[in-house]
């Protein structure tokens, strides 16, 4: 178990793009209820099952378990809400922190944002020049909400 | 992954009661959406995470994973829908099959029913004399529905 403290930002330019190699993510949701999100995710050849609690400011309870990728695939295809979320994630180190830039595909094509995970609320961090304004509090950017309200409908 | 084929029955009398020792189960649901039930369960000192697909007749897709009992407990307390389901399960062997009798507590106190799991639809099995009519098709008896519509309200 853990607590997730995440901040989300838009991007100012394309200067992040050559700083890391991207990895394909495919994920879907069994529940997008407020306060109990249940996600299944495939990263490369590995499957994961994740439960997230309600967002309280930047903090969220999170439980993650690895599961066989074949079963992750079957749950995604047969049981998760559609459309599935397809994205490429770029992990970019910057002054002691890792910025994760997600570039979406499918019905969310055109959407790109960055996340940084903190150890505790209020922790300070340096901001790369390619980072734009913060959107942590905007629920449209929650991945779970990108299923029901994808970027192409914004 | 697996497919679950289950039949559910009411009980005619108390003759099942001394045929097995019961074990305490505590379980809750992160999602009770039709077609994608997500359950967390503690049996004794072990925790489990289970995803079930839609019921199609007696058959249901089912995926189950063991998780640390302390995390199961935290998910049950903090994230699952209330009330949690508390029951004692008695596993009773009878002519090559195992009958599971569930005796509920809390808001479902007074409710008792038996389940038998089959290998394939249409498989034949012997019926103990303490088994009454079948209720497989009555959704009130789904454990997930006993959260929102417990036995005390029937």
UniProtKB/TrEMBL annotation, chains A, B:
Domain CYTH as annotated: residue spans: 2-148
InterPro entries: CYTH_domain, NeuTTM/CthTTM-like
Organism whose genome encodes this protein: Desulfomarina profundi
Protein name (record): CYTH domain-containing protein
